[in-house]
Write a structure and sequence with these properties.
Length: about 120
């Protein structure tokens, strides 16, 4: 607890509250105080929970980055890196072949339309 309040101090506060507020209004005042204290406690708990989640997330991101770096270091000289490079080259070659095929189709289509216009 942030405040160092003992039983005797709490008893004194309760007696003063009873004298100031009276027996009719004291239960309602205590109920209102309890609600405020509960809201404050929930707010602090939610804030702490959110901060803890953010810290855990940052820690996990750091660990993930470390693991990725370690895997990349291990894969640089291995067969995996060679396979990856070969796969990237094949993908580039396939993309270039696809572009050439699309261009050929487009030029063939335009040739057909030109042939139809000249035959008409």
């Amino acid at each position: 607890m942030p405040f160092d309040i003992g039983f005797s101090e709490l008893l004194l506060v309760m007696i003063l509250a009873l004298l100031v507020l009276g027996p009719e209004r004291l239960p309602k005042a205590m109920q209102t105080f309890g609600r405020w204290a509960g809201k404050a406690k929930r707010t602090v708990a939610n804030f702490n929970h959110q901060v803890n989640r953010e810290l855990e997330l940052d820690e996990m991101k750091k660990k993930l980055a470390e693991h990725e770096a370690m895997i990349k270091r291990q894969a640089e000289g291995s067969d995996l890196q060679k396979l990856r490079d070969e796969a990237e080259q094949k993908i580039k070659a396939a993309e270039e072949a696809k572009k050439r095929a699309e261009q050929a189709i487009e030029s063939g289509t335009s040739n057909l339309t030109d042939d139809k216009k000249t035959s008409s």
